[in-house]
Each structure stands twice: as C-alpha cells, then as structure tokens.
Amino acid sequence: MVNIEAWVWWLMAAVALGIPLVLTAMPEFGMMAAGAGAAAIGAGLGLGPVGQVLLFIAVSVALIAVVRPIAARHSVGRPQLATGTEALKGRQATVLERVDAEGGRIKLAGEVWSARALDTDSVYEPGHQVDVVEIDGATAIVM
C-alpha cells in the first residue's frame, strides 16, 4: 500500500468538499474545504493528527459562524430593479385627452399611452397630473 502523507489527504478532502459546493451552491461546503486546506497546511508544517483535525474543525466552524451571517445579511433586502410595465407603476403622467372610465390618452415617460380612470366616477381633463396605478395591456390605469 502506498504511504501518502497527511497533507495530501487533506487536499483531497478539500477538493472533495469543493465538488458539492459547485453542484449545490451551498457555501458551507466551501468553508469546510477551506478548513481542510488549513489542516493540509498544518500537516505540511508537522502538526499531529489530532491538531490537524482540531484545526480543520476550528477553521470550518469559525468560517461558518462568521461568514455565513454576513453573507445572509447581504443577500436579503437587495433592491429589486423594476423593468417594463412594473417600472411605470407609481409614476406621474399628464393627461392629453380627457380620461374617464371609458378611456383617454396620457403622456407617460415621454410616450403617449391609452388610459382609463381607476374610479368609474372620476374624470381627468387635459393638463391634469395623474398617478399610474397599474398597467393593463397597453392601457394605463390612473387616479
């Protein structure tokens, strides 16, 4: 049987832990792979088997305890970029032709849109500023 040094085993463990990291995108595997890399360095510097295992555990747990909460904080609450018709909701527009429940025309984001009033009793005359509540197909619903 071939006598392989301990640091090589730790490097193989680091690579083995890196495979599920790539396949599952779970960063914990990467942190444990870093712990195995630290244990490989310890083995290369002459650290005993118990020290290698303790170094692996210490580095892995420290990375998981410190890096994981930071990463979780940064992944939550990212502002969503509104595009398309979602970006038009909440914007103001100028009435070009009378807008009521039946329809009308507005100027929204530099373009002329067909529009209708959200409230069936509301009527908006030309020049009036309205808020876009929703986009229904090619028609802006305003109030």
Radius of gyration: 31 Å
Helix content bin: 40-55%
Number of helices: 3
Largest sheet: 5 strands, mixed, barrel
Mean pLDDT: 90
Strand proportion: 15-25%
Return the structural class.
alpha+beta
What gap, in angstroms, lies between the N and C termini?
Answer: 81 Å
Shape: rod-shaped
pLDDT < 50 stretches = none
Query: What is the number of strand segments?
Result: 5
SSE succession: HHHEEEEE
Name the strands of the widest sheet in spatial order: 1-2-3-5-4
Topology diagram in text:
Blueprint: H1 6-24, H2 27-44, H3 49-75, E1 92-97, E2 105-108, E3 111-117, E4 129-136, E5 139-142
Parallel strand pairs: 3-5
Antiparallel strand pairs: 1-2, 1-4, 2-3, 4-5
Helix pairs in contact: 1-2, 2-3
Fold and architecture overview:
With 143 residues, the chain is of the alpha+beta class. It has 3 helices and 5 strands, in the order αααβββββ. A hairpin with a 2-residue loop joins strand 4 and strand 5. The model has no long low-confidence stretch (mean pLDDT 90).
